[in-house]
Amino acid sequence: MDHSPTDLPPKVLRYQARGLVGAPPGAAPPVGPDGRPDLSSLPVLNAFQTFLDKERRTMQRRLAALALFMIALFLALGAAAGLVGAHFFVQIAERVRLTQVQIESLHSAAAGLRRDTGEELRRVKEEAERLLRRLDERQPAWDAASAAAEQGARQAAALEDLRGAFQDLAASNAALRAELAALRARLEQPPPAPRPEPAAAAPQPRPPSPPPRAAVFAPATGVLTLAVSPPRPADPLPWMLLIPE
User: 113-143: per-residue pLDDT in tens?
Assistant: First the structure.
């Protein structure tokens, strides 16, 4: 059965290519003193291998520089973190020390206040007991003063009532004085003169009679007694008022 060249499977031509430069097919490539294949007889592969070695060394240097940079960065960050932590630790320690000092001062002040408070409470208790004793001693006097104040209030009310009654009595007395003055003026007036009677036809002449004398009343020497009844009928208050002529 015939096969065209395109129907054949691919073949490895490595040994055939090596055979072109003088090495027999199937022979191993030459090895250098370092154990690596000697590619001096292959300039293209030699140049490519040189390029790869150079790039590998460059990459190694870059990786070493990057590693050193990262190590330095981590060391710097660690140093900065250590400095910041030390600073915060110093601040926290200072705050703790100040807090302890304040707490100790507060404890001292509280102890002093407790001592002063105990003395003050004892003094206040003694003062309260003394005031209670004085109140007990003065309680009878205060009761008497309260009773006297109540009695004074009642007497003041009675005096107000008496004042009103006296004002009414003064008004009545003034009215009586006015009536007495009017009566006295009316009594002191002379009687009217007699009118002449018309002459009768040939009357007998009579001797003239003496004029009538004015009536004279005896002076008032009696005592006028007025009684004023207070609001409470159980306590009558007699009043005596002398009225002059």
Answer: 777 777 888 888 888 988 888 888 888 887 8
pLDDT level of residue 75 (50, 70, 90 thresholds)? very high
Mean residue pLDDT across the chain: 74
Query: Long-range contacts of range 93-97, CB-CB < 8 Å, 24 or more positions apart?
Result: none
* Number of Cβ within a 10 Å radius of residue 46: 13
Q: Which two tokens stand for residue 214?
A: 């004015």
- Give the count of alpha carbons within 13 A of 37, CB side only: 10
Largest CA distance in the chain: 231
Under 8 Å between Cβ of 49 and 39: yes
Residues 240 and 222 sit within 8 Å (Cβ to Cβ): no
CA–CA distance, 210 with 138 (Å, rounded to integer): 91
Domain range list for the chain = 15-83
